[in-house]
Structure formats: C-alpha cells, structure tokens
Amino acid sequence: MKRVLKGLFAAALSVGLCFSTVGCGNVKDGSKIEKCVITLATESDSNIQIEVELYMNYTGSTIEHFKYLAGNNYYNDTIVSNAKDYIEFGLLDSSRNTLDDKYAAIITNDYASKLKLGSGDRNRYTSANTIVGEFFNNGVQDKDGKGSPLTLDGALVLKRGLQNVKNSDGSVTEFAEDTGKGVMAFTFGTTSYFSSASDFAILGKVVKDNATDDEKSSYDRLKDLMTDNASTEYYYTFVCEEAGHKCNEYGHRFRKTDDEMERYVDGEWVVMDSKDEDVKTFLDEFEANGKYASVLPKTEITIKSIEFKKK
Asked: pLDDT value at position 71?
C-alpha cells in the first residue's frame, strides 16, 4: 500500500512540475498550447506552412473567435493585405473586396449574443458584433491578475479596427479596444502600430524551432516572405464621410515612386498630377490618413487553409 501511495505521489509531483515548467508537454509560459498550421501560397510556392502555437489561457475567447471564423472558411482563398512591417490577412478577398459581409454572415447576432468573455460576465461581442479586445489595457487579465507574458516578436494577433463602431442601436463604440473583427497579423515587434503587447490580443507565437536540414523555421520563412515581398503599392481603405473630400474619388490602389504618386485605373498605372488642386487635396488626405493604407505585397500571397490540432 505504501508503495502504491508513493507511486501516486510521484506521479502527482511529475504532473505538477510539468504544468509549472516552460515547454513541458503541451504547456508553455503557464498556458495550455494548441497547434495551428496556416498554409500560404504564392506564384512560386503553393504550400508554405506556418506553424503557430496558440496560448489558450491568455486569449481563449479570441482564439475561439479565430477558430470559429476559420472553421467557417472565412480566411480561405483570401489574400495577404500587408507585408511590410507586419503580415496582415483577413481584410480582403482575392478581388480585393473587404470581408465585412462575409464576417456578418458568420458572426451573427444569434451567435454573438450568447457568449461571454472568458469565464466572466462581460459580453464577448459589442452590439455591432465586433469582439472585445482581450488584452491587459482593456481590463482583461489572466487568473493571476497580470497581463500575458507574450511579446509581439513572432506573434499572431487580432488587429483592431481603425474607425469607431456603429452599433445596431445607433450608438457608437469609440474604444478601439472593442473594434476587432477577423483581421489577423503576424508581428515582429518592428512597427510603431504594434508597439505594446498590453494593447493587443496575442493569440500565439510562430514556431522558431522547427527548422530541418531542408527548410527554415516557420518564423524565418515568414520573415523572408515579408522581406521578399515588400513593395510601394498601397491599398487605401479609408472611407470619407465629409463632403468635398477626394479620398475615394481616385480608387483604392496607389503606388509611390521617388517623387510621384500613381493610381491604378482600368488595368494601368497613371501618374497623378501633383500640380492639380484636387490631387493636392487627395495627397494631403492620404498623408494624414496613412494608417488606412495597407502595403500590398509585391506578388499575391493567398491564404489556402487554416488547420487546428491539440498536439
């Protein structure tokens, strides 16, 4: 009997050590880990697999939101909409249309109204069905009252919206913290936008230790993809509400050369006359609202699939 009790005690001690040790089994940094594989495609490579470890304890509701969207094919066959300082996806389809209608068809009132944030009483979604930001500076903490220990280097994060949210009852949500939809980003801690880990829901980290003799790690492959595809072509999503503004009159696709701005018209790039007063107005608005301009990759990068596994 003593021998049995001794064995049980040893087993319990082993489990306790596993849950308190970084990298033991499916636990890291005090969190349960699930795996995610995001498969990307370019013209030259149709099977770029990026492995991500999802930290379930820190942003569990946001991860569930991401998995629900992915499970309903929200991301499949969409394109990467930014590949300069960070890699962004979930904003545009293959025709470069925004995914708002697709999002609304998946995150419905019936689905969103039933869910709470974590195990608390706070609603997971606003009345506009955007998701509440699950990060420290939005009042969301882990069980120990601390923020997530994860950094933004090699992180998978939920990108917040850039404009206030108009709710179904006519009210406006002014807090960017609660304006997230389905746009995700891989960050590398190199941009002023993703500067504070306390201001973004970090779902997981891109794996750095899965390199083989034939292939770089997921982290290095992703950085190479971003570096190789950096460009000067912009997709401008800003929607003007004030009369007289020119920011939507010229379309959405632009690119900069050394001293000129070009816009994409009927399959061709056309130089914009900077001496024209209307063009000057647009250029001033473009400069002032640069945060609404995504830097499109040099060659198209498509999200093929997103798969989840617990081990």
From this structure: 97
CA 83 to chain centre: 12
Q: Which residues have C-beta within 8 Å of that of residue 19, sequence separation ≥ 6?
A: 27
Q: What is the DSSP string of the chain?
A: -HHHHHHHHHHHHHHHHHHHSTTBTTEETTEEEEEEEEEEE-SS-S-EEEEEEEETTTSHHHHHHHHHHHHTTSSTTEEEEEESSSEEEEEEETTS-BSHHHHHHHS-HHHHTT-BSTTSSSBSB-TTSPBPP-SGGGT---TTS------SEEEEEEPPPSSPEEPTTS-EE--GGG-B-S-EEEEES-SSTT--GGGS-EEEEE-SS---SSS--HHHHHHHHHHHT--SEEEE-----STT--TTTT-SEEEE-SS-EEEEETTEEEE--TTSHHHHHHHHHHHHTGGGEEE--SS--EEEEEEEE--
Whether the predicted pLDDT of 158 surpasses 80: yes
Backbone region of residue 11 per phi and psi (left: phi > 0; alpha: psi in -120 to 50; beta: other values): alpha
The dihedral built from the CA positions of residue 225, 230, 231 and 237, taken in this order, carries a sign that is: positive
* Digit-coded pLDDT (tens) for 22-44: 334 488 888 999 999 999 999 88
| Each residue's pLDDT tens digit, 42-79 | 988 999 999 999 999 999 999 999 999 999 999 999 99
At a CB cut-off of 8 Å and minimum separation 6, what does 139 contact? none
Give the list of residues 6+ apart from residue 10 with CB closer than 8 angstroms, or none: none
Residue whose C-alpha is closest to residue 207's, from 101, 90, 309:
309
Question: Which amino acid appears at position 65 of this protein?
Answer: H
Question: pLDDT digit string (tens) for 111-135?
Answer: 999 999 987 889 999 999 999 999 9
Rounded Cα gap, residues 129 and 113, in angstroms:
8
Instruction: Show the tokens assigned to 102.
Output: 């697709």
Concatenating the DSSP letter of every residue in 160-172 gives PPSSPEEPTTS-E
